[in-house]
Request: fold
Amino acid sequence: MIRKPTELSKIVKDKIREEGPITIRDFMSLALFHKTHGFYTRGPAIGSSVGPFDTSAKFSAFAFGVTQAITQASNVIGTPIRVLELGGGTGQLGAGIVSFLSVPHDYIVLETSHGLGILQAKRGLNVLTTLKGLEPSPTVVFANEVLDALPVHRVMGLANGEVCELFVDLDEDGELCEQSGPLSTTKLHQRLQQGNIQLGRGHIAELCLEIPSFLEELERVVKPGYIIFVDYGDKASKVYSYRHRNGTLRSYYQQQQVHDMFYAVGQQDMTADVDFTAVISEAQALGLELAGWTSQGTWLTNLGIQKYVGTGKDSVVRQKEVDQLTGQASLGSAFDVLMFKTKGLPDGPGLQATSH
Ligand SMILES: C[S@@+](CC[C@H](N)C(=O)[O-])C[C@H]1O[C@@H](n2cnc3c(N)ncnc32)[C@H](O)[C@@H]1O
Reply:
């Protein structure tokens, strides 16, 4: 596929010409969050029928299921609570949850994208760009497909047992290409050691160093409460297994996977599988407890998503939504639910006897 020249690809090339190669982490950060041309900063093209990303959030049944979790959690914590949605996308999920809630909990979205924040506010949601001013209080945090959007470094095993990092550089034609070099930070070495991640020659792995600070901010404001992540990922031994020897970083252009991460810089989504083992150990290091880990399908079923279907004239359509979200051949097994709780709370809603 011939690459699409974009404003952002030009900016990235100019940057590399001036400053030298950049890490994949910095490239991904620019591609998704550049202040003007980042994929998420821009938000979806207005009037476009093809949204930027297709997630469970587009189903009203998903909002219904998440609302059951929030309600059950608030019954434990004591009502009313604060609900903090991370990375609200188009705002469809948040608006859906607010409409299903029978108690008027304080609903806040933390959104780093300006364009998406505008869409969320248009749906009546209260949007914050940072948690800095937020006081600790009883809270349920919910994040659908946010961890997978955090920028990752890309490293590769070498023949001598060492590990190098992959950078974005320019080839002899001045086009963007991947180039290996020494690790940009010793934190990558530490992460590999802590996670006991062994990479054979040519084996590529993505490492996310943002997770500790991301969780730290949440832990500060959730007093007490639950933090619920829905995402694709697995335990470290699976994410970094030989099956994924080329890594898990992938790009989507208009919801189609493209094999070239430089195909349409700033117009394509980039994402990598989440290393749940790392998320769990970082959360536990902050004093959070693992409340449970199960598949999205099992979680939503346990929460009683079937009640969404009802017996009305649209029950057939509603059943299809539920099947898509819970089916083992569809989103039900593609996504997992990883839940944390502050000390002293019982295990999380929808997780009874379902630990991974
Ligand atoms: C793949 S989209 C998912 C959107 C929505 N949750 C859904 O399921 O449709 C990722 C979202 O996370 C937001 N995001 C990325 N990094 C973030 C961060 N550090 N804090 C808050 N939001 C973030 C993006 O702007 C975007 O809204």
In short: The longest strand covers residues 222-231. Residues 40, 53, 55, 57, 86-89, 93, 110-113, 116, 144-146, 149 surround S-adenosylmethionine (CB under 6 Å).
